[in-house]
Give the backbone structure.
Amino acid sequence: MCALTLLSACSSGDKKPMETPKDQLVAKLFSYVEKGDILYGHQDDLSYGHAWKVEDWEADSLTRSDVKAVTGMYPAIVGFDLGGIEMGDKANLDSVDFGLIRKAAMLHAQRGGIVTFSWHPRNPLTGGDAWDVSSDQVVKSLLEGGGLHDLFMDVWLKRLGDFLESLEGTPVVFRPWHENVGSWFWWGGKLCTEQQYKELYRTTWTYLVKARGLTNLLWCYSPNSNISVDDYMSRYPGDEFVDMFGIDHYEYVGEDGVGEAGVRFAEELKRSLTYMNQLAKDHHKLMCLSETGLESLGDPTWWTRVLYPTIADFPVAYVLTWRNAHDKPGHFYAAWEGFENAPDMKAFSELADIVFLKP
Ligand code: BMA
């Protein structure tokens, strides 16, 4: 285990005065990669965990964390989801208040951690959720010339921009329009053309970076796994719009049990990370495992026997396991206090090249 140092420490001293929060975060992540370190991240870590949630977020000091209960440390990266911000909702799609998200994100950064945001926006054409793939006209309707373009620019992106701006420069790894090659989100592979997808991403980038002037966003492009490198790059918006190559890759247990599932997970992940490593080198970008995990962690040594040996030799800046739902008992991806897999997660956190955040 090596502890994360304060991000602010990196910005003091000899840094150029014009360096933006995003530039500082890029430099910080590259410095870990150069040392061979991998940061550990957990989705929604400070908002809730297995069978608990923050009740009064304004009064709460946000020190509770399943990961801390197991390892003694916070995750170095904490992820949050902005789904619902576009509607002007008070809370996101998982009922986490946006006030809590803002507070937790800024506090985590002050503690020396790093924040990442995903976004599962509603379907603006049908009123359904992000998984509503009943129409292949949604992306088209949001782009210039489309019937929902004004709504997208003036309402959706404006609300997103307002929230991101309210973080007062806190650096964020932002990865919109993720898992874009599969067809389970309305912006997915069969739901829009490659050109439309790229335009959607670039429009989002141009609004936030150029129109709103946000300098705190590190842009992560994160397709789903189980695809070829050509498919991975088929929707790549371009070097100007991306700072990091990500991938979302999970382990799924079939009838042949966790042993075989772990082998399949590792083989496919290595294949993906191999081509991403080449892409990262060629395009001078960072790379990460933007989402991963084994739901319910039914493999007692998943962390040290499956995950770690698969990623250890790749220059991944971070690996983030998905959320520990407070209200769905089997929907968790990090160990919690008392769970049988906890000692293995603790052992993972103590490895020399794995980085958590000391409280
Ligand atoms: C999914 C699941 C859902 C959740 C969504 C956004 O993978 O965890 O329950 O609503 O992510 O956080």
About this structure: Residues 39 and 117 are 16 Å apart (CA to CA). The chain has a mean pLDDT of 96.
